[in-house]
Amino acid sequence: MNDAVATAGKLAPETFRAPRNRLPYLLSLPALFVCIWILVPFFTAVWYSLEHYNMSFPAGRSFAWFANYIDLFTDPAFWHTVAVSLIYVGGSVAFELMLGLGIAMLLRERTLINNAIAVALLLPLMVAPVIASLIWKLMTNPDFGVYAWMASELGFRHFRWASDPSTAMFTVVLIDIWVNTPFIMILLLAGLRSLPSQPFEAAALDDVPGYLVFWRITLPMLMPYILTATLFRMLLALQEFAIVYGMTQGGPGNALMVFQVDAYNEFYQNMNVGRSAAVLVILWAITFVLSKLFVNQWYRLRARNRGEI
Amino acid sequence: MAGKAARSLAKVLVVLFFMFPIFWILVMSFQTNGEILSLPPKLVFTPTLLNYASLLVGHLKTSVGMLTITFMRNVMNSFILSAGSVALALVLGVPAAYAFARFKFRFSEDIAFTLLSLKFAPALLVVLPVALEFQQIGLDNTYVGLIWIYQLITLPLILWIVRSYFEDVSPDIEYAYRVDGHSWLGGFVKIAIPLAGPGIAAAGLLAFIFAWNDFIFALVLASGPKQPVTVGALAFVTASGIQYGQIAAAVVLSIIPTFAIALYAQRWLVEGLSLGAVKG
To answer: Shortest CA distance to A239 belongs to which of A275, A292, A186, A285?
Structure first.
């Protein structure tokens, strides 16, 4: 580091070039170094997933090739986890997208009240997801919760929110919508407000009906923002842990056993390190593909906003 | 006319849905347990500060005896962990972000992507083996160990946001400064960092919020005395059971810092949340 800086100080062209080649590596090395030590446990986890490894029988630990994966793929409980996770992702992201887009359209004009609402709506996004589930737990408590009371006043006398397997998914998806819709809303609002005005003025001159303006002009122009926000949310919703764990720890029964809650219980309750790691490696493979898609979309959106396309 | 009324009604419903839970938890935090338990819910009542007082003092007299509350310690832990991990991430991340913005070097995009993909990898995949390893090397349940693992949250965020700010600053001023006889380091410290200053501050504040709101890392790696508010609040619910007023007050205390930062830094939040892709 020191001699790179010292030589960079001289301005002779030949000494300027050499440190410039090393400089970027020197600058990014400390960050990389810290992260490499985080990559070690990642490879350890991949190794665990290939082992018979149960903490309650340490003596039985042995290399198992793909036995854990084969077990998972032939176990209905694992497919239940896959299904529950996909329902969670589909339900929360679809509603967040529709709601976020609708609210962004509502707040599109730059008025004082619209800006105030946009700022206020950011607040749920700033609540830690596990704290959000605590808030909703208090509000849906059958003894005194204000939402539980409202539901029963509206005639849903036996609506038991997260404590009933048939409504637990609805409840956690609702909390996810409450926390994360503002994220999609704020990105789409920024996108909407940055769109050029000419196409809309031209459409107004020609008396194009509002729904056509929306489907033919607004939506296509907003698509890069929608894709970025959706991929980002899908990545995180697929791994959601805090909301589900805070609300029911995966229950009632196994109604909400999403990927990471399942892996957590496998590790701490069944002590089955191998199987838990295999679940997480499968989840990682899915998120890796999604994050590759997200990053490509990120570059495209950024290039567009910098006027490079 | 009907359209305008419908839009106003829609806005009212939106504000109600998103604001009511926050409003209600605030109301509950000023109520006694008796008022909280009464149905229909009470909106007219004499506010009490007892819930907050018992959290600050650290104990609460109940019918079954004295209940010790360590919640303020959780708040302090959250401050130490979030501030520490943001500080470390800035020291590590700002030079790296500068390198990615200014130089196209071999593997630069691969390294940048690897660092970002860590943020998107399942947290438990990394943290469960870490839990076993930390036990062996004595780093479990220490601030150092937690701050290190929190780099998974803070470092990619700072790297990607600050990188995009550096890319927006023209390198010409730095070159001119260097041609003037100053070192490369001088140009970085005196020119590049101040010009990207607002971006660095915004990235730091956003990283603080995400570190503060972390649950999964702390749940696995921190026990009792080192737990942040997120894990502490959940443990508090299990321990106190029916002290709903105190739970509500604890929830309010745990969200005040992130709300304050969000309101202060709202101008930069869009850019931060999109990792620098969208201008607010």
So the answer is: A285
Amino acid at A54: N
Token output for A135: 């808030």
A165 lies in the same domain as A30: no
State which residues form the domain around A118. Answer: 75-305
B229 assigned to some structural domain: yes
Nearest CA in chain A to B208: A126
CB contact under 8 A, A123 and B262: yes
* Chain A to chain B Cβ contacts (< 8 Å): 279
**Dist CA B209 CA B150 (whole Å):** 12
* Selection from B217, B197, B206, B215 nearest residue B258 by Cα: B206
The single residue listed with the structure tokens 């962004």 is A104
A103 and A150 part of one domain: yes
Cross-chain residue pair B113–A48, CB shorter than 8 Å? no
Same-domain pairing of B182 and B110: yes
Instruction: Give the confidence band of A236 by pLDDT, cuts at 50, 70, 90.
Output: very high
Cβ-contact B243, B33 below 8 angstroms = yes
- Main-chain dihedrals φ then ψ at residue A64, nearest 5 degrees: -125, 10
Yes or no: say if B141 and B223 are a contact pair by the CB < 8 Å rule. Answer: yes
The more confidently predicted of residues B30 and B182 is B30
ipTM: 0.91
What pLDDT, in 10s, does the model give residues A3-35?
Answer: 444 434 334 343 344 455 677 778 888 887 877
For residues B155 and B45, state if they share a domain: no
Q: What is the pTM of this model?
A: 0.90
SS (HEC) of A209-256: CHHHHHHHHHHHHHHHHHHHHHHHHHHHHCCCCHHHHHHCCCCCCCCC
Query: Which uninterrupted H or E stretch holds B62?
Result: strand B59-62
Contact A187 B18 (CB under 8 A): no
Per-residue tokens: B32: 């006694």
Domain check: are A102 and A233 in the same one? Answer: yes
Instruction: Examine the domain organization and report whether A206 and A82 are in the same domain.
Output: yes
Put simply, the chain B residues between 116 and 155 with a CB less than 8 A from any chain A CB are: 116-118, 120-130, 132-133, 148-149, 151-152, 155
For B168-195, write each residue's pLDDT tens digit: 887 888 888 888 887 777 778 888 888 8
pLDDT digits (tens, 9 = 90+) for B80-92: 999 999 999 999 9
* Count: domains in chain A: 2
Spatial CB neighbours of A150, under 8 Å, sequence gap ≥ 6: none
**Chain A residue numbers touching B100 (CB-CB < 8 A):** 24, 28
Which among B128, B151, B184 has the least Cβ separation from residue A276? B128
Q: In whole angstroms, what is the distance from residue B81 CA to residue B146 CA?
A: 7
Range of the domain at B52: 2-69
Contact flag A134-B22 (C-beta cutoff 8 Å): no
Q: Using alpha carbons only, how large is chain B's radius of gyration in Å? A: 23
Alpha helices in chain B (DSSP H): 2-29, 33-37, 50-57, 71-102, 108-120, 123-137, 143-168, 172-179, 184-187, 193-195, 197-213, 216-221, 229-240, 244-264, 266-273
Could you say which of B14, B15, B184 has the minimum Cβ distance to residue A5?
A: B184
